[in-house]
Amino acid sequence: MKNGKAKFIRYSSQIFTHFILFIFLITITGCATGEKVAQLSPGLSQVDVVGTLGRPDGFRTEDNYTILKYTNRLISGWSWDKADYFVILKNDKVTEYGSGKVREKNVGGIHTIFIHQF
Q1: DSSP of 99-114, one letter per residue?
Q2: What are 9-26's pLDDT values in tens digits?
Q3: pLDDT averaged over the chain?
Q4: Looking at residue 117, what is its pLDDT?
Q5: What share of the chain is helix, strand, coil (3-state, %, to 5)?
Q6: Which residue pairs from 52-59 have beta carbons closer than 8 angstroms and sit at least 24 positions apart in sequence?
Q7: Do the Cβ atoms of 91 and 112 come closer than 8 Å?
Q8: pLDDT reading at 36 higher than 70
């Protein structure tokens, strides 16, 4: 009887450990803006962009253009480096998107990556 109870406890512990690891991995990969930006494409609406990336930290509108700014966001679920991301819309459709300043953790430098037009 003791042997069966010990196996059950060990088995339950393994299931719990795997469950926690699974939740951790889903959480880590789900919160990186850099990975979500890869889901964008030209022609998406502003509603689609906000649905994918979340609420922007700022925006600017001029004539038919709107620029959405996502500030200091994680680049990936496997790195602690952060970047600013921009999405440019013309007449409520994505025309350009990409990262701006990249902040590498513990490096101290700032790199600029330019946005490419499609």
Answers
A1: EEEEE-TTT--EEE-P
A2: 777 777 767 666 655 554
A3: 76
A4: 61
A5: 35, 35, 30
A6: 53/85, 53/87, 56/87
A7: no
A8: yes
d(CA 60, CA 68): 7
Amino acid (one-letter) located at 87: V
User: How would you classify residue 77: left for phi > 0, otherwise alpha for psi between -120 and 50, otherwise beta?
Assistant: alpha
Q: Which domains does the chain have, with CATH numbers?
A: 31-112 (3.30.1450.10)
| Lowest mean pLDDT segment, chosen from 13-27, 41-55, 73-87 | 13-27
| Residues 86 and 67 sit within 8 Å (Cβ to Cβ) | yes
93 versus 72: the higher-pLDDT residue is: 93
Give residues with Cβ within 8 angstroms of 105, minimum separation 6: 79, 80, 81, 82
Cα distances from 33 to residues 26, 70, 76, 105, 113, in angstroms, run 14, 8, 7, 16, 16
Residue 90 structure tokens: 């013309």
**How far apart (Å, rounded) are the C-alpha atoms in residues 85 and 53?**
10
Rg (the chain; Cα; Å): 21
